[in-house]
Amino acid sequence: MTVLLDARHLEKRFTLKAGLLGRMGAALARKPAAHQVVHAVNDVSLQVHEGEVLGIVGESGCGKSTLGRMLAGLLRPSGGEIAMDGKAADTTATAHHLAVQMVFQNPYASLNPRLRVGQMIAEGAVYHGVAARADAPAFVNDLLAQVGLDASYADRYAHQFSGGQRQRVAIARALALKPRLVVCDEAVSALDVSVQAQIINLFMELRQRQRLTYVFISHNLAVVEHMSDRVAIMYLGRIVEMGDARTVFAAPNHPYTRALLADAPRLDGRSASHQPIRGELPSPLSPPGGCSFHPRCPNATARCAAEVPMLRDIGGRMSACHLND
Ligand code: SF4
């Protein structure tokens, strides 16, 4: 398959300024206040192939949303590079923002409450020359039909819609710019379960009709399993396992993937043992040394606390665990 987006060694660090006590202590000691650094995304490399759905899954705080925002150009990486169609991409440029669109978790927060839906869908497309102003009404009607909404809804405001309808408007607005890649960040997580299924079906229909490519970010394993061709499992800012979704979900290699699957309900009725992963997700402010999963891993050895396992090919998929040596 053709590689559409190629991300190499992406890093994102956030610096947290010292709090009041830290600043006072530093002032008393006549030293500069120490800032803390959060490594939200750590040396992540992945490829997105044209026409595929790449699922990214992990617990809250694992860095998956930060990664999605870097791919879409909404956050500037602290390190690494992103290429589109084999050429280095300037993710701050308008061309990249048009090519990669995002659909967010909360459609109410992502839609402008002062604009009618028709204006919201058309304004970006007209501004960027994707549609002529004279053609805007027909352009909007066509997009509303594609996402399953009546053309008369173009005159309504966001607050006049249900959650599922708002998400359909958000999808229409993303599609209006004719993106090459759509990054869906927990795009169905805030919806009722019955509405979730409708929006998932809509994503899949649009994919078939328009040959769309998705990066589908979710903490919901069942949804990711249903949607994805390939899947990347993230833990504390790193990808720990990545490969064909059916293979990974049927026979997970990494202990963290196994623990996630043991805890999660599955769409096809396969019963999980509902064993919660032991311990809490460590703070990204002070991640454990070595393999960052080692304090929670049932298979950990002394080596795991000392040495970071590299993500490497183990025959058809990638995994980062010393047990594979
Ligand atoms: Fe567990 Fe060690 Fe593998 Fe990390 S490297 S997942 S701690 S066995």
3D structure, described in words:
This protein is of the alpha/beta class and 325 residues long. The protein has a single domain (3-105, 181-189, 201-324), classed as P-loop containing nucleotide triphosphate hydrolases (Rossmann fold). The protein is 33% helix and 23% strand. An eight-stranded mixed beta sheet has the order 6-7-8-3-9-10-12-11, with helices on both faces. A hairpin with a 3-residue loop joins strand 11 and strand 12. Helix 5 packs across helix 6 (136-146), helix 5 (117-127) packs parallel to helix 7 (163-175) and helix 6 (136-146) packs across helix 7 (163-175). The longest helix is centred in the middle third of the chain and has 18 residues, at 193-210. The protein is globular and about 65 Å long. The two termini are 29 Å apart. The chain binds iron/sulfur cluster. Residues 254-255, 291, 293-294, 297, 299-300, 304, 309, 321-323 line the site of iron/sulfur cluster.
What's this model, at a glance?
By secondary structure, this protein is an alpha/beta fold. Helices cover about 35% and strands about 25% of the residues.
**What is the overall silhouette?**
globular
Number of strands: 12
Distinct compounds present? iron/sulfur cluster
Distance between the termini: 29 Å
Give the total of domains.
Answer: 1
Helix content: 25-40%
User: What is the H-and-E element order?
Assistant: EHEEHEEHEHHHHEHEHEEHHHEE
Mean pLDDT: 92
Query: What amount of the residues lies in strands?
Result: 15-25%
Strand order of the largest sheet: 6-7-8-3-9-10-12-11
CATH class: Alpha Beta
| Rg from Cα | 21 Å
Structural class: alpha/beta
Query: Could you list the spans in which at least 5 consecutive residues all have pLDDT below 50?
Result: none
Biggest β-sheet description: 8 strands, mixed
CATH 2nd-level architecture: 3-Layer(aba) Sandwich
CATH domain topology = Rossmann fold
- What's the CATH superfamily, by name? P-loop containing nucleotide triphosphate hydrolases
* DSSP helical segment count: 12
